[in-house]
Amino acid sequence: MAGAVLAAGVLTTVVQVTNAQAATQICDQYGSVTGSRYVVQNNRWGTGVQQCITVNNAVDGFSLDTGDANNATNGAPASYPSVYYGCHYGNCSPGTILPLPASDSRFRQITTSVSMTYPSGGAWDAAYDIWFDPAAKTTGQNNGVEIMVWLNHLGSIQPVGSKIATASIGGAAFDVWGGRIADNGGWNVMSYVRQTAATSMNFAVSAFFDDAVGRGYAQSGWYLTSVQAGFEPWTGGAGLTVESFSVTTGAAPTTPPVTPPASGNLALHRPVTSSSNESSSLGAALAVDGNTSTRWGSAYNDPQWIQVDLGASQTIRRVVLRWEAAYAKGYRIQTSADATNWTTVYTTGTGAGGVNDLAVNGTGRYLRMYGTARANTSWGYSLYELEVYATGAPPPPPSGPVTRSGTLSWLAGLPTGSSNRVASGFFGGYSGGTFNLDQTEQLHNQTGQYPAVLACDYGNWVTGSNTQVNSSCNSTLKSWQQRGGLVSVGIHWPNPGSGGFGTKLPNFADITNPGTAVGSAWLNSLKQVGDGLADLKSSGVVVLWRPFHEMNGDWFWWGGQDTTTFKNVWNSMHNHLVNTRGLDNLIWVYAPDFSRGNATGHFAGGDAVDIVGMDAYDDNPAASGIQSTYNQVLGLGKPFTFTEIGPDNSPFDYGKWINAIKQYYPKTSYFLAWNDKWGPPQNQNSGALMNDPWTLNLGEVSINGGTTPPTTPPPTTPPAGQGACSAGYAVTDSWTGGFNAEVAVRNTGSTTISTWTVTWTFANGQTITNSWNTTLTTAGAAVTAKPVTYNATLAPGATTAFGLSASGTNAAPTLTCTAG
Q1: Is 441 a catalytic residue?
Q2: Which of 107, 564, 639, 706 is the most exposed, having the fewest neighbouring CB atoms within 10 Å of its CB?
Q3: pTM score > 0.90 for this model?
Q4: How many angstroms separate the Cα of 554 from the Cα of each of 458, 501, 643?
């Protein structure tokens, strides 16, 4: 059990080293040497056998002198001699900026490197140990997550817990292990074991933390407390050496610029404090991050305040408060020169929530919203954004609802801009099965951005070979448009014939004849799809509707059909949905595959298609086949989009896609990246894709005929007191005859839940052979998963995860989550 406990107790010997000197040997159990930037510690916590290390002159490395430990390899290691930056049991390295919340922009700048050498014998691992805690803790045991990154290991040892996945991070492949330790209040353990041993590494700490958050083992608001590198010996280990170690934190931005420019939003990314935070993931900084999808939440009592430092005295003429559902009925806007003596420039007792755009007249370096009365006393105060302006002219008012024509016109005009000219998109999953926002949140955690376009597939995989129509994702799609985004719907359509999903329909023309069995089955499923799209219309949602994708391939039942017959079927479908059902909220998207040729042969005409594009999966986005297909479909005279993108193999650098769009496909209006192993969160360089100046994300959509983001952001929680949860299922690894899967459980309600239950039924005789982080029972094909002690309680918005191994096929079941 590697990395189970790091030094409980006190440091008995502390040596301060300020200048280079002769190497220092430490033999005391918890002895340490402090240099100008790092601390080296002996940390012999798991054995009574003496251990000595020699610290190098620079105090950025050491060697293990003795190898006398003889711990059983199926238990805990003998020690963790290491060098670290940050705070460990009250001993902080000189000048450290830790603890630091992961929500702080500086966290993204923290990188670390290490170089090591190894002996040929013994049983040991060479690993980073990176600690996070829910609070800014400098003493005692951390109780958030311990992230271990194993560069190398020798002997029959393994990390804490069980293997739950494989991952590619920072250009290297890792086996991912997850577990939990119950001692001293308990904490989660994530271990990343390199599949190929290395003597050195250089990486951003956030890369591994984001992965842990995405798997439910960490929360985005937790504090980084220390970055450590060293060794865990079970037996032997003499000669294990850290040659050098470094942690780079970027510029030390604790002091803001003296005089920020008096233009635009003066509060954007400024230092901010609050009277309280509802949780570590709802910190005050989220109210000045420019993102209307994140928020600050306070404790559930009055009064509460949030205060921003503008850096210098400013003239203040306008304040904008963008409230979540938990808004203030009574509040004051106050200014101050010293954050002690306050002048009220606005007050109300009748606040109505939504967006409060206030004309004020004040001067000061500090501005605060001082809440005196909550509209709903079951909640606290919750702000998406606090904005401050030196001028009083508000933006133009909204011009009406989002419309089909306005959306289509806006998309068509995007490629003419100099920046923000291609909208980002991401696939959320299959409705009723895998659809959720978990990977979308993971993408946001990695990049700070949500996609402009969210996609759902109405095909719910009920067996490994066929689907059924399901539109339960509509509620999320409605919220996405309310949040300022666009919505895309496609469908892996159920086969109306007797074959499976991938069996070519031999009598394709029968689709247009309801008197045939195929035509009757088709019409029934078309009505179900129409019902889902009509539900979206009733809420004013414009849909990028993408039916019959990759029709020029031969892997779907509608694929490889006679082109004339296909056009007739497309036009029949168009007539039914538009004329018979009256669905004038659909933007029709034509999406062939780039790799099979004849990309324009199935095009049903300009009256039945609004946007053209292609699905493109290739490790080289600049491939000649993609360029050729791009030029062909552009010739159809419609706006162009990449309707699906992804790699053939992982790991993949997603920076290649935005670079290819800029160089070879400049008329692209939007792209839609797939999820799971093809998606940006599971590959590399998602930030390059989402943060390029060309890329337009959620919060940046502005459509003629409507305005987004909305003037009243939608509630992100149900009514007070309502408990709710969702569960998403993903296969993380598979082999002949078996697979591993992970289930992410999210509290989607407005109150903390004390327990949860996830149930499903396997359709293909799968048998569960192992599980972790859950109490799991089966009754035939029915499965019931309940929490264990440490992951039962979930705060609003919090996520946990459990995993399983099973024999059989890996088709995803439909999950039901019930909150306790």
Answers
A1: no
A2: 564
A3: no
A4: 21, 11, 18
